[in-house]
Amino acid sequence: MNIKISRGALRGTVQMISSKSDAHRLFIGAALADQPTEMVLNGSSEDLEATLQCLQALGADFLRQGDNIKVFPVEKKEELAVMDCRESGSTLRFLLPVAAALGRNVLVEGKGRLPQRPIGILTELLREHGCFVSNDQLPLEMHGQLKGGTFSLPGNVSSQFITGLLFALPLLEEDSEIVLTTEVESRGYIDMTLHTLKRFGIEVEEGKRGFSIPGGQQYHSPGVMQADGDWSNGAFWLTAGAMGQPVTCCGLQMDSPQGDKAILDILKQFGAHVEVEGDRVTVSHGKLKGCVIDAAQIPDLVPILCMAAAAAEGKTEIRNAGRLRIKESDRLAAMADCLKGLGVPVEEKQDGLVIHGGKLTEPQGEIRIDAYGDHRIVMSAAVGAALLGREAVIEGAEAVAKSYPAFFAEFIRLGGGADVL
Ligand SMILES: O=C(O)C1=C[C@@H](OP(=O)(O)O)[C@@H](O)[C@H](O)C1
Ligand SMILES: C=C(OP(=O)(O)O)C(=O)O
To answer: Which residues are listed for phosphoenolpyruvate binding in this entry (predicted)?
Structure first.
């Protein structure tokens, strides 16, 4: 699907959807619990549906009541479970160790870029601890019972490996240790996992080198759970506020463990005005100036921050962002391409971008932006084109459904122009 974006600011209030990262975790906790759990959810997505289907394949069940979903915990099943993770890295990397801890025989599939995204570190650890895993890429088959012990891995390839192990290891008979051999990146996501585990009564002790996880634990359902609002997707609207007219997002809790709430400090650093009142956050325009952004802990914010950088006066350097190359697209290459298309001077580095803001060149003819099948590129391109005053066609805009199916409906409600061609 190609969508044509018109020039013009966005303005108004958005009720934020549930955090995809939080909801993945709550669904997994609920599926492993001793009792059913009522999940209060505001808006699903392709990735969350992938997690639900995979949990169902592992023996959980669901009853949908509007947006809300009652989760019935996994029951033992002997037959091969087919887990289609679609394009969701979280689903794959969280549920592979969980399936191994449940001792399930699984066939794991995926599409888009997921089969190329790395999982070798995880599959190797599962093999070392008693499982047969046929391949280091999708599709793969896995069988056998995961055994506890020491799991050593780097902390800077994907935090999703660590989250998957943190969910799985409490289920084993034996005690386990996760030993991190490098510094941790995407730390906020590990904090989200620890927060979820605590809510389900699971004990994990954090030490200097990693985590100690006692075996033989049981997840306890708290009965009803509500996912926090989505700071990662709220960032698209808040950045639109920084670049143009004021935008308010409701339902974004400041005490959420999501690392992406750092968007507020970064937009302030650019020069935008931020007001917080309970869980209502308003961002409005200030004179934006380029800055240095360390992306190690906030990879998902980088695509939209490129647009703030394009609107800011002077140079913005995005550093420590090498991991963006192994997401749904090579996000450094995709964003360099997108910025060039919009007329923004940009230099692509091995692990970052240098963006020269406030210096737009005039487009020669129609602007067409390839979203490379990546939801965060679609949303960044839409906000960027509108707010930088460029009419542009986004190719492959349907990718937005991976995390935010209602994005364009909201975009139009906020006064944006988006026409399906
Ligand atoms: O745990 C999570 O919910 C996520 C972790 C991050 O991945 P990495 O740890 O691989 O950077 C992030 O990019 C992804 O969108 C969601
Ligand atoms: C990278 C993302 O998700 P995942 O790794 O779960 O595919 C994302 O939502 O930007």
So the answer is: 20, 89, 117, 160, 331, 376, 402
Query: Ligand 2 centre and the CA of 328: distance in Å?
Result: 7
Identify whether 136 is a catalytic site residue. Answer: no
Please identify which of the residues 22, 47, 230, 300 carries the catalytic annotation.
300
ipTM score: 0.99
232 labelled binding-site residue: no
* CATH code linked to domain 2-17+229-420: 3.65.10.10
Total-model pTM: 0.98
Atom of ligand 2 nearest to the CA of 90: 6
Helix 263-270, helix 231-243: angle, nearest 10:
20
Q: What is the pLDDT along the chain (421 residues), one digit of tens a residue?
A: 999 999 999 999 999 999 999 999 999 999 999 999 999 999 999 999 999 999 999 999 999 988 899 999 999 888 899 999 999 999 999 999 999 999 999 999 999 999 999 999 999 999 999 999 999 999 999 999 999 999 999 999 999 999 999 999 999 999 999 999 999 999 999 999 999 999 999 999 999 999 999 999 999 999 999 999 999 999 999 999 999 999 999 999 999 999 999 999 999 999 999 999 999 999 999 999 999 999 999 999 999 999 999 999 999 999 999 999 999 999 999 999 999 999 999 999 999 999 999 989 988 899 999 999 999 999 999 999 999 999 999 999 999 999 999 999 999 999 999 999 9
Closest atom of ligand 2 to 91 CA is: 6
Considering only CA atoms, which of 242, 244, 254 is closest in space to residue 280? Answer: 254
Instruction: Tell me how many degrees the CA angle 52-53-59 measures, rounded to the nearest 5.
Output: 90
- Contact between 112 and 87 under an 8 Å Cβ cutoff? The reply is yes
Instruction: Out of 18, 157, 159, give the residue to mutate to test ligand 1, the one with the largest number of ligand atoms within 8 Å of its CB.
Output: 159
- Indicate the domain borders of the chain: 2-17+229-420, 20-226
Cβ neighbours for 364, distance < 8 A, ≥ 6 positions apart: none
20-226 folds as UDP-n-acetylglucosamine1-carboxyvinyl-transferase; Chain (3.65.10)
